[in-house]
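Subject: sequence -> structure tokens, single chain

Hey, anyone have a minute? Need the predicted structure for the following. Not urgent.
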Amino acid sequence: MFKNAVLSSITILAILLAFSLQGTASGSVVVDRVVAIVNDEIITMSDLQREVATNKKTEGKQDERAVLEDMIDRKLQMASAKRVGMDVTDKELAEAVADIMKRNTMDAKQFDAALAKEGLTLDQYKAELREQMTLSRMFNKYVRTGIAVDEAEAQAFYKKNIKNYALPEEIHVRQLFLSLPKKAKPDQIAAIKAKAQAAYERAKKGEDFIRLVREESDGVTASQDGDLGFMQRGEAIPEIEKAAQALKPGEISSPFQAADGFNIIRLEEVRTPVRPYEKVKDEIMNALYQEKMENTYRGWLQTLRSEAHIENKL
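Reply:
Had a minute. Here:
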């Protein structure tokens, strides 16, 4: 519960010596070595391993080198905050902890117990929270402030990337339908098939297809001039879908039998609709805003790195 309220790491802020030794059952020792130097601060292997272990709990497998680079970036930001007087004061930290306890309806004893379940002491939690608050403050000032996306940018992006907003292809089909009687006998089926073939021949000779539909189609199909409207590929019954795949707009299929009758279709139109700009405007503006923010953040970190002394020993 509390890990979500702070950064996903446990950073030991005290400077450690390079030779911290720990005995093992076999009598061997493990040397805690320095893996990075950031100005006058160090990051040890134990710091890094603790960070990796914590990240694995919340984010899955972590690459040690990537985690170390992130730790370096955070140290640079914290140092910068101290230089410009933007680090979090003890009073601000105490108020933040009190607010978190209030929102979770906990007293001090319950809060300590909840932290212990997460493997944290109160001091460790405060160190994490202080870092989170400081980094957030720095991010807002040096990255978020001044970033904006205007309407013209969003519209230009939409036009340039219009294919990204395409919807599934649709077909517009008109149908001439001749129904079969229930439990139709072979001779009845043959008669309806012949009638459908005759209608198809007339259409091929140039007779108006809509007039043929009105004259020959059965039921509601005729009253609608056979218009089945636009359908996404795959939405029509399989027989109509298969027949339409072989046609170009304006072409007419030969008669084919579906479950309850014979069909002739004309493919009226094929289109690939796109989502209207107004429907995707917010999505685009958010994406452009995030892109600008990420670019600004990377540039700011690069500036901090260029002004610092960094040794990565991993």
